[in-house]
Amino acid sequence: MKKELELYFHIPFCVRKCLYCDFLSGVADDETKHKYMGALLAETAGSAFQYGDYRVVTIFIGGGTPSIVSEDDIEELLTTVKEKYVLAEDVEVTIEVNPGTVNLAKLSHYFQCGINRLSIGLQSAHNDELASIGRIHTWEQFQGTYRDARKAGFTNVNVDIMNSLPGQDLAKYQKTLEKVLALEPTPEHISAYSLILEEGTLLYDHYEKGLLELPDEETDRKMYQETGRILSQKGYDRYEISNYARKGRQCRHNCGYWRRSSYAGFGIGAASLVNNVRFKNSTDLKRYIAHPLQCREEIQVLSQREQMEEFMFLGLRMTEGVSCEEFEQLFGCTMEEVYGQVIHKNICDGLLKETGKGRIFLTDKGVDLSNYVMAQFLN
């Protein structure tokens, strides 16, 4: 039986760089986009022989803004995957889109060529907040995109939102949640993230110069808690620190990351994990376009200790936590032998909890201090 594999495709182009974004993305002309998509096809086809023992269970097209390139380019990419790789019958195929870059015709094209999950970047339902972080769309444009997605046939839609935006208070954030939950039909999945100021971004520079007023840490935590409370009342389960889904609608692709499934990344800067080897592609756009099959770098063969660390700090992101039995099966020793002292300390501190079924997971308090908890599992 073939092993499972996830595929990720990075399309690094956008209409305009958002003020908070530190992703590998940017503005490009049509010629550059065309050359890049050609290189992406070449890498995808030319790498297929490495994955002959695998069956693809999820595909994720991310960015940047993947919907900025033509629907024909996306179809050609998926056609190449179907021709060169073995796909599971129920393969999950996601594409990220931004309002202002798609219409009903493009979304219908996506659906017809096999994309069955859509992730729409909203971030806020308030136009002043959208402008403050450099988004290119309005709430009204998002509504149009959402309606078009449903008309096109999509029955699995994620909406991204953010909290702790400049000038945002708790009531205004709650209003964004209420507006998203008033959509018909409601989204199957909601990702809710706190704004993080990354060095090198325009928002970071504004904050350093005292030009930006952000909610304080206490307000940020209240926003997080309100997200969980409101979404739980509406039938969503939090299955990961920042992700909420209706039953059976978790993002299978992202779950694979947290469970350390094998995945292959294509495009500039794309990361991969295959057979406990991590590697990534060059972030040099010109180099990638010229030699898409010769840009692999940062190859790291993970030691058993590193595998254990990843098992713990990635697995603890999920509400189901980590399995003591699975740990022993994978590594030939018990979780107690390796991390007993750390686990017991955090249980005593009220940050971790153990079920009778041998699973360790973060408590609500532990989620608030998740970075502190997870750092303790690293050497």
Give a verbal description of the structure.
This protein has helices spanning 30-47, 71-84, 104-112, 127-132, 139-152, 170-181, 202-208, 217-233, 252-258, 285-290, 304-315, 324-331, 335-348, 364-368, 370-375; strands at 3-11, 54-63, 87-97, 117-123, 157-163, 189-194, 237-240, 243-245, 263-266, 271-274, 277-281, 296-301, 322-323, 352-354, 359-362. The protein is α/β, with parallel strands linked by helices. Helix 1 packs parallel to helix 2, helix 2 (71-84) packs parallel to helix 3 and helix 6 packs parallel to helix 8 (217-233). The protein is globular, with a radius of gyration of 21 Å. The strands form three sheets. It has a nine-stranded mixed beta sheet with strand order 7-8-6-5-4-3-2-1-9, with helices on both faces. A three-stranded antiparallel beta sheet has the order 10-11-12, with no helix packed on it. The model has no long low-confidence stretch (mean pLDDT 95). The chain is built from 15 helices and 15 strands.
The total count of strands amounts to: 15
User: Biggest sheet, strands in spatial order?
Assistant: 7-8-6-5-4-3-2-1-9
DSSP helix fraction:
40-55%
Task: Indicate the structural class.
Answer: alpha/beta
Low-confidence stretches: none
Series of secondary-structure elements, N-terminal to C-terminal:
EHEHEHEHHEHEHHEEHEEEHEHEHHEEHH
Amino-to-carboxy terminus distance: 36 Å
Largest sheet composition: 9 strands, mixed
